[in-house]
Design a protein that fits this description.
By secondary structure, the protein is an alpha+beta fold. The chain is built from 5 helices and 4 strands, in the order H-E-E-H-H-E-E-H-H.
């Protein structure tokens, strides 16, 4: 008799979490598709924000927006200019922005960075 146990390793779990696509519904009933962006998306956003990037509160508010890949199935590219940031905020509205911020925190933010790094090294 052969028994196979399908357990994922911590590194597999971290990689799967990073590659995950999450679809949420905001208070207006819109389907928002989120995916962890590549590392350059964050740098591009900071560059696009210019001096505004020095305001950590503002950056914290807009950074989750680069996770949005679609709204009701319609593509939403990560913003790479300040006008694009503002347009996406307006398109999402208060309900969409709140839903995105909550979903990013719940699905993509890892509280234990050191633990995840150690797990990946195993």
């Amino acid at each position: 008799m052969h028994v196979t146990i399908n357990e994922t390793t911590p590194s597999q779990h971290a990689v799967a979490k990073a590659a995950a696509i999450v679809v949420i519904t905001d208070a207006k009933g819109r389907k928002l598709t989120l995916k962890k962006p590549g590392v350059l998306a964050e740098y591009d956003l900071i560059e696009a924000l210019g001096e505004t990037a020095q305001n950590s509160t503002y950056v914290g508010m807009v950074l989750p927006l680069i996770y949005v890949t679609a709204i009701d199935g319609e593509d939403a590219s990560p913003p790479i200019s300040k006008p694009q940031v503002r347009a996406l905020i307006q398109r999402l509205g208060d309900d969409g922005v709140k839903a995105v911020m909550k979903a990013v925190q719940e699905n993509f933010v890892t509280a234990d960075v050191d633990g995840d790094t150690a797990a990946i090294k195993k």
